[in-house]
Design brief:
single chain; 17 strands; 21% strand; alpha+beta; Inorganic Pyrophosphatase; 352 residues; five-stranded mixed beta barrel; three-stranded antiparallel sheet; magnesium
């Protein structure tokens, strides 16, 4: 028995694509030029579809998975097959919601499993939950990822001197609605913060659901502070302190914790999209990432729907959720001395 829910339908994929590597055999063509031509032939779906998350296994256990279906009923990879852009001209993006606001399950798209199902993060053989620390409960936004983006661990960010974290771009949706786990929503980009997580670049894109009542009033990062005073400070505080209850150090930020403006953010999204194109086009080592997809024309990792269905068919049936661990709802309090280390930094100058 499977339980499913559907996102809003906005369109359909309409283009089929050229096969990867169909470039004329001409001598004396520089290899880099051939790679450029390959990437041009890498045709990415441009239109948003309805997506249906499909659950398997038992929530709160190691075997829980969410796979994704397109409107035509085919299983797809949420990492590779859902288009980044919902409307490229208007810079409206698709976001995959991994963790609904005010919840604790550390869900993520699994980079290593074929079709990249959503699963709960695991450490030392146990599923992980984010700790509650005063005054917060769980995540303070709808948290998720931009599909078709990737932070290349071999790329050194010039402004920070740090390498990418090998993940899709992280996204914080700040609207009013609590979205469901696995929802694919359309968002408007507002700004970006740069967390330095254990020496790696970990961008956090701030955005708002296009259907939120405040979406039409928000066009850049300063509008967040104007309409939601204190929220940027809370975001900085949350990312700085959320690992402290686990006994870890305060997290560090680039740019003094400042949130960058919309145009800068879009540049970083495009950069991560181009890095993903190299990954899915096999121009760089996959580094253990499962790149199988069913819609990206030109990708050497493209598989048939039969192969995708076979992979999903291995999953256990959906069963009632297992009980939550007793400590999930515990509220932790941060030592005032630790809190003081971020107080000065939290006086943010948005948009610098």
């Amino acid at each position: 028995m499977q339980r499913v829910w559907c996102s809003t339908r906005l369109g359909v994929i309409t283009r089929a694509c050229k096969r990867f590597g169909q470039v004329p055999e001409v001598k004396n063509i520089p290899f880099q030029l051939i790679l450029t031509n390959f990437r041009r032939n890498l045709v990415v779906p441009k239109f948003t579809m309805a997506y249906t998350p499909v659950e398997f296994g038992t929530l709160n256990t190691l075997d829980y998975r969410i796979y994704f279906k397109a409107a035509n009923g085919n299983f797809i990879s949420p990492f590779h097959d859902i288009p980044l852009y919902a409307d490229k001209e208007k810079n409206i993006f698709n976001m995959v919601v991994e963790i609904p606001k005010w919840t604790n399950h550390k869900m993520e798209l699994n980079k290593e499993e074929k079709l990249n199902p959503m699963k709960q993060d695991v450490k030392s053989g146990k599923i992980r939950f984010v700790k509650n620390f005063f005054p917060h409960h769980g995540y303070i936004w709808n948290y998720g990822a931009f599909p078709q983006t990737w932070e290349d661990p071999n790329f050194i960010e010039p402004e920070t001197g740090t390498k990418g974290d090998k993940d899709p771009l992280d996204v914080c949706e700040i609207g009013n609605k609590v979205h469901k786990r696995g929802a694919v929503i359309q968002v408007k980009v507002l700004g970006i913060m740069c967390l330095i997580d254990e020496g790696e670049t970990d961008w956090k894109v701030l955005c708002i659901d296009v259907n939120d009542p405040n979406a039409s009033k928000m066009n850049d990062i300063e509008d967040v502070e104007r309409l939601m005073p204190g929220f940027l400070r809370a975001t900085f505080e949350w990312f700085s302190l959320y690992k402290v209850p686990d006994g870890k150090e305060v997290n560090k930020f680039a740019f003094g914790g400042d949130a960058k403006k919309r145009d800068y953010t879009i540049e970083k999204i495009i950069e991560a999209h181009e890095q993903w194109k190299k990954l899915i086009g096999k121009e760089v080592d996959c580094l253990g990432i499962a790149c199988e997809n069913v819609t990206v024309g030109g990708s050497p990792y493209r598989i048939s729907q039969e192969d995708a269905q076979h992979e999903v068919g291995k999953q256990p049936e959906l069963k009632p959720a297992a009980p939550l661990p007793d400590d999930v709802d515990v509220w932790h309090f941060i030592d005032p001395k630790v809190q003081m280390t971020i107080d000065d930094k939290s006086k943010m100058k948005s948009g610098l």
